[in-house]
From TrEMBL:
Pfam families: WGG (PF10273). This is Pre-rRNA-processing protein TSR2. It comes from Penicillium frequentans. Keywords: rRNA processing. One of its GO terms (biological process) is rRNA processing. The lineage of its organism: Eukaryota, Fungi, Dikarya, Ascomycota, Pezizomycotina. It comes from the Eukaryota. PANTHER family: PRE-RRNA-PROCESSING PROTEIN TSR2 HOMOLOG.
Length: 188
């Protein structure tokens, strides 16, 4: 998630709704894969951020918007911006979740979005910790390789001989009494 989701938690209904939309879209596996794979080009992450804002704006400007409208936008943007055809029900599920967040924030209920935010924060911390551990292990492995290379126990095997294959004999074509060439299949 980018700067929008790493910002401090929201304080009013509109901010909570924006946070909920951002969390829902960042947790959508189809969009996450498209962004990570740069299927939308080098600005894939910016396109996701734009989509978050576009849905928020749509919900604000058009109060009659329902889950089907949001789903249509999600499917269209995935197709147009990321060249991904969504043929499972995931876009519908994300749209329903976003509309639930809208209903909750309109009623002043922010607990579901807060919980989702806290879960996201824990996952981000775990990923960060795992990433730094991986870098430490990778660094240690590189140090060991240089120590191993300096070891005198290595035996120089010289250059391996090139593999040479003897040329196959090409079979002469068989011609029958009518002048036709017999087709022979490959032996297996």
């Amino acid at each position: 998630m980018d700067a929008q989701a790493t910002a401090p938690p929201a304080t009013d209904a509109a901010s909570y709704l924006d946070l909920g939309i951002t969390l829902a879209l960042n947790n959508w596996p189809s969009l996450t894969l498209a962004v990570q794979s740069n299927w939308g080009g080098p600005t894939s992450d910016d396109k996701r951020a734009w989509l978050c804002g576009a849905i928020s704006e749509m919900l604000t400007d058009r109060p009659e918007t329902d889950a089907e409208d949001v789903e249509d936008v999600l499917i269209q943007v995935m197709n147009d911006e990321f060249d991904v055809v969504i043929d499972d029900e995931s876009a519908g599920n994300v749209a329903v979740q976003i509309m639930e967040f809208k209903e909750q924030t309109d009623a002043g209920q922010f607990s579901a979005i807060r919980e989702m935010w806290e879960t996201w924060q824990r996952k981000s911390e775990q990923k960060s910790a795992a990433s730094s551990m991986f870098k430490q292990v990778e660094s240690r492995d590189e140090d060991q390789e240089t120590d191993d290379e300096a070891s005198d126990d290595d035996v120089d095997m010289g250059d391996a001989p090139a593999l040479v294959r003897a040329p196959r004999e090409k079979a002469e074509p068989e011609i029958d009494e009518d002048g036709f060439t017999k087709v022979v299949g490959k032996k297996r």
